[in-house]
Design goal:
The chain is an alpha+beta fold. The chain contains four helices and seven strands; from the N terminus they run H-E-E-E-H-E-E-E-E-H-H. The radius of gyration is 40 Å and the shape is elongated.
Length: 240
């Protein structure tokens, strides 16, 4: 019943439904998706007919897609980032004037929106429209909403589900912990054998030189020179 009431309310306000669905940026962009952020294409050429509007991004959980009211105003506590997702199922962020998304798209310019990039305001309730780090992997859904003052004038479709990256357990990574593969063990054994052969060859090379002759007997090296002291002779025992 509530979603129907919200739809009727939006219709009463003359809300235009645009056939645009927000999408993630192409896969060649670094950091396209992390554990707390994701990158969207800017809605270029989508809101050209709403030159006086402010364009807001709505981020929602699955429940938030039905619960969000298009008449919501930026800054309202019930739709603030700091309450998401425990006490609210959606929030507004990244407000911009329509001309920021003008048409055509600038040549050789990367026009994207990084959602979740602001860490300084994440816990600051005085910044309810903070673009703070997303609190978990999701999934999340997003759409754009155009507001002319306090009146909603246009909205896009909801995006598809967006699920963020999650850290992998060490045991699930090949070659780590108990999941170490047989191939890794075989490679380690082969490298150990090669190292042993290399050390043996090095030792053999050293022993072919005089360095390994320390333990051998050489008469010329062991001979002792005898000296004849001309000024010392045996003295007869002293007579008493």
């Amino acid at each position: 019943m509530r979603p129907l009431l919200l739809l009727l309310l939006a219709t009463a306000h003359g809300l235009d439904k645009l056939s645009y669905k927000p999408t993630l940026v192409g896969g060649n962009v670094e950091g396209r998706m992390t554990g707390s952020t994701f990158v969207l294409e800017q809605p270029r050429c989508v809101f050209d007919s709403y030159s006086t509007a402010n364009i807001w991004l709505v981020v929602a959980t699955r429940a938030g897609m039905n619960a969000f009211n298009d008449s919501a105003q930026p800054g309202m506590p019930e739709w603030s980032f700091q309450r998401f997702p425990t006490n609210t199922s959606a929030y507004l962020t990244l407000g911009a004037m329509q001309y920021h998304y003008g048409c055509p798209k600038p040549d050789r310019e990367l026009t994207v929106l990084r959602v979740g990039s602001e860490t300084g305001c994440a816990d600051n309730i005085s910044v309810p429209n903070c673009n703070g780090p997303l609190p978990g992997p999701g999934p999340y859904w997003v759409k754009f909403l155009a507001l002319n003052g306090s009146e909603p004038t246009a909205t896009t479709e909801w995006s598809g589900p967006i699920t963020l990256k999650t850290a992998r357990e060490p045991q699930s990574i090949p070659g780590m912990g108990g999941a170490r593969s047989g191939a890794m063990i075989a490679i380690t054994a082969i490298l150990s054998v090669l190292l042993a052969i290399l050390l043996a060859a090095l030792l053999a090379t050293l022993c072919s030189s005089e360095a390994c002759g320390v333990g051998s007997f050489r008469p010329d090296a062991a001979s002792i020179r005898r000296y004849n002291t001309h000024h010392v002779y045996d003295q007869p025992a002293a007579r008493l």
